Amino acid sequence: MTAPDIGQQYDEIASWWNERHDHSTYGLAQVNRALAFVPNGGKALDVGCGSGGRFVRRLIEQRFIVTGIDASAQMIGLARANHPDTLFINANIIDWKTSETYDFILVWDCLFHLPLEHQAQVLSKLCGLLSKNGVLIHSFGDGDGDHTDRWRGQTFRYSSMGITRNIEVLHDRGLSLLHLELDQFPENHVYAISRKL
Q: What stretches pass through the bilayer (predicted)?
């Protein structure tokens, strides 16, 4: 599956996603755990931001200047409507480039949509976008390899390079692991919180 496909797939469910997740609490406890490791304020990047909502509001409450990026044009349109004073970028994270660095990077439930061969590259790139002492929280699949699954009437591809390889990439890019949790509800995945040394 190529990167634009996932954007098109989420275009088809963007309105449903916005209604379901705008005021959801899913993932907030984990993000709050990560935010406890950083001072309030600075610049934050939300990768796979979808239509914004709970995570963007939480980052703004913590006085972060937020940039969101998502492959779905429809999601980005909704995010801009939901948060008109926030910068949202419609791009796929594989190809996106920036000269900015960020104090906090959030990558929740999106890396597993990337083709397996791009996962280490993208995670490495995100590590490089962290400021010194910046914090990254990212979730990923708890297995190795890839598979497809039916969801919302579409076939989605999922992949994961596994826990060990994720930790190796963090270490190789100069990050220190602060928290690792096998988080099995409501999704079967892992999340990690790391700091740039």
A: none
Closest listed residue to residue 94, CA positions, set 75, 66, 114: 114
User: What residue type is 15 in one-letter code?
Assistant: S
**CATH code of the domain covering residue 75:** 3.40.50.150
Q: Strand runs (DSSP E) across 30-186, as ranges?
A: 42-47, 64-70, 87-90, 102-107, 130-141, 144-151, 154-161, 175-183
In this prediction, residue 1 carries a pLDDT of 38
The amino acid at residue 125 is K
Closest CA to 142 of 186, 185, 93, 184: 184
Query: Domain span at residue 111?
Result: 3-155
Tally of domains in the chain:
1
> What 3-state class would DSSP assign to 146?
strand
pLDDT digits 0-9 by tens, 9-30: 888 888 888 888 888 899 999 9
Beta carbons of 157 and 1 less than 8 angstroms apart: yes
Is 133 part of any domain? yes
